[in-house]
């Protein structure tokens, strides 16, 4: 990956989506989305959903499969209420994230 950027966003609104506008220079790159939301019962739920799928371990030694939802070329990102998310902007070519040889 060349100069990937990860944004961490928290939406504390109870009813409105958070809208994140990407700069024009990033509107043509793919974005991997990881939305973490509470299960049934809201923020007091003991279940966490990743992109709508329940996160659970198979046993005490295996972590759950963590797969992103992929967005292709978008200038805006939307985060549902009471959710936090990670957005990996692939091949953003951020100078601070490029490997120096």
Could you describe the largest sheet, including whether it forms a barrel? 6 strands, antiparallel
Number of helices: 0
Count the E strands. 8
Unreliable spans are none
Compute the gyration radius: what is it? 15 Å
**Percent strand:** 35-45%
The helix fraction, in percent, is: under 10%
Quick synopsis:
The chain is mainly beta and 101 residues long.
Describe this structure as you would to a colleague.
Helix content is about 0%, strand content about 40%. It is an all-beta fold and about 100 residues long. Strands 1, 3, 4, 5, 6 and 8 form a 6-stranded antiparallel beta sheet that branches. The chain is globular.
Q: How is this fold's topology laid out?
A:
Elements: E1 5-11, E2 18-21, E3 31-38, E4 48-50, E5 53-54, E6 69-71, E7 76-79, E8 83-89
Antiparallel strand pairs: 1-8, 2-7, 3-4, 3-6, 3-8, 4-5
